[in-house]
Amino acid sequence: FNPRHLHVGQLILNEPRFELKNLPGRPDSTTLTQFLAAVRRLTGPSDSTKSAPFDFRVDAIGLRNGHFVLEKADEPRQPSYGRSVDYAHMQVDSIYADVSHLQFGDTLAVQIQGLRAVETPSQTHLRELTARVLYNQHFWSFDGLRLAVGRSQITNYLRFDYRTFGNFSDFNDSMKVTTRLRGAQIFSDDVAKFAPALATLK
Question: Containing H/E element for 113?
Fold first, then answer.
């Protein structure tokens, strides 16, 4: 037994609860980027002249009926709160997914299979997300994508480039979208769940 090594083949999380909340007056106290940085610190320094890093690895994770909250106390709710996703005040429930091939670094890489969930305030129903996902503080990409939200379905490839993740709330002016679509069906009312500025398009 080596206390510097912890390898887990498969981890099943039943009804996990995860919350990211900023403290009032400290708007940058908790972010997804900071959370990923904390995970990288857990794995230890890459410099071989320093102490050996803690070798932690999970090959696969199963989520069963999870719950996620993102709450930024210093930011007011968007006028569209309750009709579309507010990226500063999110509540996601009934999360199911199988996750594998995790790689942590400046960019998080993960294979997601069969993710489904409900963003409860806006009643946005994610029926399926399957993709090889890359995420860092300036882009988010989905390769080998199968995405079903409401009546809409998108396949193949999707990438968002942004200055900060909060740019999703100002989608038209702040986001660059790259996509390769095959057999896609896209309905404006489903898109408006994520980009409320598009709610009037038909």
Answer: strand 108-119
